[in-house]
């Protein structure tokens, strides 16, 4: 939507428009000269050049500007004098007040319109503006009759000017623009830079949005992990207790894997001669060492005593000083079921 304002020292705004829309200046009909031109048979591509040449010939002085609206092969030209055109901003498009008034409801007819300044009489034929004239005050009956006769309208001597119509400005002007593009090059350049700024802002906003989504997802994931950890803490503790208990059971089970000391000690005491006294008992896994005090100093007596025992049969006897005898047994030499005794 274009941003519109009146061409006046106060530059009163009548339509805010959009940020990307063009700027339009509405020129009052009172400041323009109207001419109606007919270009029969001229191709669409050549109309702008032909109109420029014709408008230059119609200009009352050098430096005047013109704006036109096309209805078929008819060009409606409004010429703005050089004094009013001085200092014109090419970033703004010029629209004449008449061109953005509503079209008449009838295809043929005459009407009198109250404008921002003054009054305009119009004659329409087949939906095309046939004649236009401006007055600073409502026309008299004689003035109105002259206007109608100039437009080839049959009237009688009693014809009077109709009551002026109060019309509101329309969003879009009627007819077609003289330019192929609705915007000037300067307006297109400004639009380009606005699009560039908007694109940069969009990309920056997209990155910020992506960062915000990523941060939110990270926080959500951390909270979810913390919740899972809190919920699984009892399970983890129970598993650790179960593993500890399992290790203890394995250790206790391992105690039954080999022969029990008190069974071995009872068997050794039973097999030793009656005069023999055990002074030392030491066991390291499968290695057993015991020292005995016995009057007999022959190692063969002790080897012979353990010869039939399934675990102690590998005994090696070595005499020591003081009447002691050292007996070394390798319990793995003859493995048996746990707790087995002869």
What structural category do the secondary elements indicate? alpha+beta
Proportion of residues in extended strands: 25-35%
Spatial extent as radius of gyration: 59 Å
Q: Could you report the average pLDDT, rounded to the nearest whole number?
A: 84
Helices, by number, come to: 6
Question: Helical amount among residues, as a percent range?
Answer: 25-40%
Summarize the structure.
The chain is 34% helix and 25% strand. It is an alpha+beta fold.
Topology:
Elements: E1 3-6, E2 13-15, E3 23-27, E4 33-38, H1 47-58, E5 65-71, E6 74-80, H2 82-85, E7 92-96, E8 109-114, E9 119-125, E10 128-135, H3 141-150, E11 176-177, H4 185-255, H5 261-271, E12 277-284, E13 287-293, H6 299-305, E14 316-319, E15 324-330
Parallel strand pairs: 1-3, 3-7
Antiparallel strand pairs: 1-2, 4-6, 5-6, 5-11, 8-9, 9-10, 12-13, 13-15, 14-15
Question: How would you explain this protein's 3D organization?
Answer:
The protein is of the alpha+beta class and 342 residues long. It has 4 domains: 1-101, no CATH class; 103-167, no CATH class; 184-255; 261-333, Threonyl-tRNA Synthetase, Chain A, domain 2 (2-Layer Sandwich). It has 6 helices and 15 strands. It has helices at residues 47-58, 82-85, 141-150, 185-255, 261-271, 299-305, and strands spanning 3-6, 13-15, 23-27, 33-38, 65-71, 74-80, 92-96, 109-114, 119-125, 128-135, 176-177, 277-284, 287-293, 316-319, 324-330. The strands form 4 sheets. Strands 2-1-3-7 form a 4-stranded mixed beta sheet, with no helix packed on it. The relative contact order is 0.08.
